[in-house]
Design goal:
It is built from two helices and 32 strands. It has 477 residues and is mainly β.
């Protein structure tokens, strides 16, 4: 049995609303267009304390391009039911779980959204859509409403996108975890494989996660039944209390994503996710993190269809070297192809584990493959490094396909920089002479994929696509 790593927790954090005094015009429309010289930081940094400066409405409304933006702090307390734009010159504070229904929420590049406590999350229902397009210079930042320096995991809910693409739950629909199971607006799943949950591009999500109950937790970014119309590019989740990114079924794909210092798993999928992923970084920390990837079919029915069957290429997964941390745990009947991965620094845990008999059968049949990857720095068992651990539930024989046996390089040093384990200023770009420059699998064509003839998320000696829009703040003690 694997030992679960402890999660960061936050005890007794509250934000008092009493005594707040508005500093602007109470009649300001929070959806007005920007007249732009507000003096407000637009890059998610700034020196704001996190405490609200004024109350300019509930966050609803539409764009009025003829009215200058006043640079307000907007307390968002009401659901969004008409097309709404949030402006970069304002700061938006979620004071309740906010559901977007029958409408589109557009968020400008450089906007900062802060969650105030507990389950306060931004939830895009199946009838809504989120268009959050930041830039490398001006990312959109979702963070805690606590002052900088006082932020820590689990201080608000996170971002939830719900769609109508297929899932393998009986009946074809389900209620997303982390919310009240009786909340109808939390339903997802259906038959529209092309459903569009919206766009997240150059977006950071920090300090999120909320425990509603046992095994019922909000992640930093939760995607339930999102379809191929959804765009997910250049996304960072940091310091979440649960998973960094989790796909509950659906067909959505993701590209250029990084999960850092999350309390549980980095990338998690289940319920029949069949999307693609490329250029993924997962970094665990000392005492922080469980599995880099946790991959499942459907709990309780491992052969349920559609089978989870993603194609994931060009990953870099760096462990924190702590007990219980694993690089990948592949279980509960998942299919999938994971190619061109670097998995390193799991000196007290398995780098790769195939768990349950159905999953072992999938690997034996070639339906679940890790290929053309570099696996190094794994725990030793019986005096030998545990590169791949097989954990069948029925004593199944293991005859892994040739891709597993001959195309992976076990025990090869990928030559990641020392800063790959830094929690404040990480770097994952290997030098030009790294073995990662050789023996890469050919990346599939079409969809989100682009040619990348190297192993890992970065070309050896190449550019660092994390620069300019990511951040690595440390949690409050």
């Amino acid at each position: 049995m694997m030992t679960s790593i402890r999660k960061w927790t936050l005890l007794g954090v509250t934000l008092a609303l009493a005594g707040m005094v508005g500093c602007g015009d109470d009649d300001v429309d929070p959806g007005v267009d920007a007249g732009r010289d507000s003096g407000t930081e637009t890059d998610g940094g700034g020196t704001d304390t996190g405490m609200p400066e004024g109350d300019a409405g509930d966050g609803g409304g539409t764009v009025d391009s003829g009215t200058p933006c006043e640079g307000e702090t907007i307390m968002v307390s009401a659901d969004i039911t008409s097309d709404t734009t949030w402006l970069a010159c304002n700061t938006y504070i979620l004071t309740a779980p906010i559901y977007v229904q029958d409408s589109v929420l557009t968020i400008e590049a450089g906007t900062e959204i802060r969650g105030m406590g507990g389950a306060n999350a931004l939830i895009i229902t199946t009838s809504g859509r989120l268009e959050a397009e930041g830039t490398a210079e001006n990312p959109i930042v979702f963070t805690s409403a606590m002052p900088e320096g006082s932020r820590a995991p689990g201080q608000w809910g996170g971002v939830v996108l719900l769609g109508e693409a297929p899932i393998n739950v009986p009946g074809g629909t389900n209620n997303i975890e982390g919310l009240d199971p009786g909340e109808e607006r939390g339903q997802y799943g259906g038959t529209d494989a092309a459903h569009d949950c919206g766009t997240l591009r150059y977006v950071r999500i920090e300090w999120a996660g909320f425990v509603f109950g046992t095994d019922n937790e909000l992640n930093s970014l939760t995607l339930g039944g999102c379809g191929t119309g959804t765009t997910l590019e250049y996304i960072q989740t940091h310091g979440g209390s649960d998973d960094g990114i989790e796909f509950f079924g659906g067909t959505a794909s993701i590209k250029h994503a990084i999960v850092t210092q999350t309390g549980d798993d980095g990338l998690d999928w289940d319920q029949g996710w069949v999307g693609d992923a490329q250029f993924i970084v997962i970094q665990q920390g000392p005492g922080v993190g469980d599995k880099g990837i946790e991959a499942d079919g459907l709990e309780g029915n491992e052969t349920a269809t559609p089978r989870s069957n993603p194609r994931v290429y060009n990953l870099t997964i760096v462990g924190g070297g702590q007990m219980g941390q694993e690089g990948m745990r592949l279980r509960r009947g998942t299919f999938g192809t994971l190619g061109n991965a670097i998995v390193s620094n799991f000196g007290m845990g398995d780098c790769l584990e195939i768990e349950t008999s159905e999953t072992v059968r999938n690997a034996n049949a070639g339906n679940l493959v890790v290929r053309n990857s570099i696996v190094n720095g794994c725990v030793e068992r019986s005096g030998m490094p545990s590169y791949v651990r097989i954990s069948p539930t029925e004593g199944d024989a293991v005859t892994l396909t040739a891709d597993w046996a001959s195309m992976n390089r076990f025990g090869t040093d990928p030559m990641l920089p020392a800063a790959a384990t830094s929690v404040t200023a990480p770097s994952f770009v290997p030098p030009a002479g790294s073995p990662a420059a050789m023996m890469a699998a050919t990346v599939p064509s079409g969809g989100i994929f682009e040619a990348a003839n190297y192993v890992g998320a970065f070309a050896p000696g190449g550019a660092n696509w994390l620069e300019g829009w990511t951040a690595f703040p440390v949690p409050a003690e």
